[in-house]
Amino acid sequence: MTKMINDYPQVVTIAGSDSDGSAGMQADLLTFFAKKVYGASIVTACVAGNSFGIHDAVNMPTSFINQEFKDLSDDFKIKAAKTGMLADVEIINTVADNLKKYVFGPLVIDPVIITKHGDMLLENEAYSTFVKKLIPLADVLTPNFFEAVKLSGINENDPDFQSKAAHKLQQLGAKNIMVKGRHDDFSQTEVTDYVLLEDGSSFEMTGPYFDTTHKNGTGDTLSAAITAELAKGASVENAIRSAKDYVDKCIKDGINVGHQFGPINHWA
């Protein structure tokens, strides 16, 4: 029997290109490959860097981003999408407008506004635009601990921080929220993530804390894995659980690449 055009699950990452391959679009595409979905890409920026750090970056013109969206929509059947690094107001507005214009399936938003060490990545105006324009479009939002603190305004020392933060983010418009656990305490042995689903139900996932410098791209990989599972028809809960399990394996069975802060192992 002849297969129909575009019957294979297709996804897209809307993110920055990371030259060393450890994070950003490259980590997303590696994850899509491992998860057996076809990965397309919409480049928003190009970053020059390696395991020692980021040394230069160039944003794509918004006209180019618009054309990327149009070309994919004209030819492919995107069943799920995710966003990564969106560096400024113009790019955030452009991506939000295109996501409203084209049907790309469920949207997973990896905020990429604060690093896992607490450093802010967006200027105030871009941050405000992100909250107003993109969060309401999110079918799944995956903030790290510090992003959840910033986005929710909940005190990080509150014993119910993750639950309260997730409910606050749902009030901002996101349907399903995964508030990732804190990863900057080297004395910890476990990490607990909290998930609030659209129907109001919730659950926690606790796994081991891996003491390694090879963790670049974990957030990108997690959100990409969720996107891939959604494209294949999984429920949000099952997509998140599968993605969490995959990322833990990628960190545990590491790969010796880069001298300092290296990538995780997408072939694990």
From TrEMBL:
Pfam families reported in the protein's UniProt record: Phos_pyr_kin
UniProt-listed Enzyme Commission number(s): 2.7.1.49, 2.7.4.7
Ranges of residues in domain Pyridoxamine kinase/Phosphomethylpyrimidine kinase: 18-265
GO biological process terms held by the UniProt record: thiamine biosynthetic process
Record field: catalytic activity: 4-amino-5-hydroxymethyl-2-methylpyrimidine + ATP = 4-amino-2-methyl-5-(phosphooxymethyl)pyrimidine + ADP + H(+); 4-amino-2-methyl-5-(phosphooxymethyl)pyrimidine + ATP = 4-amino-2-methyl-5-(diphosphooxymethyl)pyrimidine + ADP
Alphabetized InterPro entries for the sequence: HMP/HMP-P_kinase_dom (IPR004399), PM/HMP-P_kinase-1 (IPR013749), Ribokinase-like (IPR029056)
GO CC terms in record: cytosol
Assigned keywords, A-Z: ATP-binding, Kinase, Nucleotide-binding, Thiamine biosynthesis, Transferase
Xref: CDD domains: HMPP_kinase (cd01169)
GO molecular function: ATP binding; hydroxymethylpyrimidine kinase activity; phosphomethylpyrimidine kinase activity
Pathway(s) this gene product operates in, as recorded in its UniProt entry: Cofactor biosynthesis; thiamine diphosphate biosynthesis; 4-amino-2-methyl-5-diphosphomethylpyrimidine from 5-amino-1-(5-phospho-D-ribosyl)imidazole: step 2/3; Cofactor biosynthesis; thiamine diphosphate biosynthesis; 4-amino-2-methyl-5-diphosphomethylpyrimidine from 5-amino-1-(5-phospho-D-ribosyl)imidazole: step 3/3
Family: Belongs to the ThiD family.
Name recorded for this polypeptide: Hydroxymethylpyrimidine/phosphomethylpyrimidine kinase
Organism of this sequence: Fructilactobacillus lindneri DSM 20690 = JCM 11027
